[in-house]
Amino acid sequence: MAQCILIGFMGSGKTTVGRLMAETTHTPHLDLDELIVAQSGQSINQIFAAHGEAYFRDLESQVLRSAMQAEGILSTGGGTPVREENRKILVQSGIPVIFLKASPEVIRARLKEVSDRPLLRKLSAQQFVHLHEEREAYYAQAADLTVITDHRKPAGIVREILSRAELLESKRK
Ligand code: S3P
Q: Most buried one in 16, 18, 114, 147, CB count within 10 A?
């Protein structure tokens, strides 16, 4: 069973922090997007282009269910907690859910050069801020712990998560 789940908006640091946390705690790292790509044999861009978002979301829920059974630190996709079914899986798992929170300005700057986030392509600055705000409500609903990642190095974020591990342990009991 997964030991810890990271949630948050695209560019909030889920994959980077998850990898480092896994390395630090000698645990495997599971990345939901990578698992989806491996299972489908297509990139995220290709899945969206060929089958549409609804198909991607179904695949995401399916892969989430199996990833929850595997051992490791699980980095989810930015849209994973939006679906109620997925939030239930996260919340009812008894596994600590950590929300990596980053401001829209920092996220926009981090994602400026990336081309593998199909959802961002068509958004205006205003729509981006709106989506970010809407999503944060879902992340907050699912999270046991919120950690701000703006202007911070991954190592400091991992240290903070691990230092608050007692709270996480108590969730499991
Ligand atoms: C998405 C986030 C992406 C990926 C897909 C959709 C979203 O993952 O799952 O492009 O809806 O926010 P990251 O959060 O890892 O970028």
A: 18
